[in-house]
């Protein structure tokens, strides 16, 4: 007879970004990060800021993925034993909306571990407590139903969260506009591209503040054959 598999698998030693790599994204808006990755990288729009995340600036940290599954919280609970200060814990519940993925007490434990934030593709509960804890969090809304902790669950590996495959060791940048994932293998390339994005944004912002009223030069586009007047 086959033995029952373990209900919990934990990967403790995954590649982590360096402190310098994380620092390169501090204070950077999520829109800039997406532009540096060819306009992509954001999690689904349904994952929105709640509590302190609605007023805080950009938050950045190393992703630690808790693959819970629908209506489960075992992986999130176990992840609290391996996280490091400054990490961002991601709870994957496969987008399940029928139960809470986290409440204020576990969020409080995350704050006690000096995490930078929490992200889930499910709802949370205990909004008053969430606001009191003050740890930035992103979720799909509110639902007071309780999750289970029966497993199976995996910590420290990867999972699909909000339409993106996120691996532990990726960098997360999150603000009031949403949550962006920088894959570990693309961190340095994104940092390099970010400098060009910042320069372009600064130049365009100066034009707008200087009175610019239009983005396109339509007359030039017509002259080049890229556009045509139809009336």
From TrEMBL:
InterPro entries: RraA/RraA-like, RraA/RraA-like_sf. One of its GO terms (molecular function) is metal ion binding. Substrate binds at residues 103-106, 125. It holds the Pfam family RraA-like. The keyword Glycoprotein does not apply. Its cofactor is Mg(2+); a divalent metal cation. The keyword NAD does not apply. Keywords: Magnesium, Metal-binding, Methyltransferase, Transferase. One of its GO terms (biological process) is methylation. Mg(2+) binds at residue 126. This is Putative 4-hydroxy-4-methyl-2-oxoglutarate aldolase. It comes from Donghicola eburneus.
């Amino acid at each position: 007879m086959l033995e029952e598999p373990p209900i919990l698998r934990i990967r403790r030693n995954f590649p982590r970004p360096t402190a310098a790599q994380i620092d390169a994204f501090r204070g950077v808006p999520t829109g800039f990060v997406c532009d540096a990755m060819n306009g992509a990288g954001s999690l689904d729009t349904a994952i929105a800021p709640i509590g302190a995340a609605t007023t805080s600036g950009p938050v950045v940290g190393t992703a630690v993925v808790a693959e819970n599954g629908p209506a489960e919280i075992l992986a999130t609970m176990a992840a609290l034993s391996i996280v490091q200060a400054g990490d961002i814990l991601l709870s994957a519940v496969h987008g399940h909306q029928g139960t809470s993925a986290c409440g204020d007490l576990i969020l409080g434990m995350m704050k006690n571990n000096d995490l930078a934030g929490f992200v889930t593709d499910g709802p949370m509960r205990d909004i008053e407590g969430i606001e009191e804890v003050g740890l930035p969090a992103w979720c799909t809304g509110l639902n007071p139903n309780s999750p289970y902790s029966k497993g199976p669950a995996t910590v420290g590996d990867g999972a699909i969260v909000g339409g993106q495959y996120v691996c532990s060791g990726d960098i997360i940048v999150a603000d009031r506009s949403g949550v962006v994932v920088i894959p570990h293998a693309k961190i340095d390339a994104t940092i390099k591209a970010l400098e060009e994005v910042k320069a372009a944004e600064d130049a365009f912002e100066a034009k707008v503040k200087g009175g610019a009223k239009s983005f396109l030069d339509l007359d030039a586009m017509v002259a080049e054959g890229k556009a045509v007047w139809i009336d």
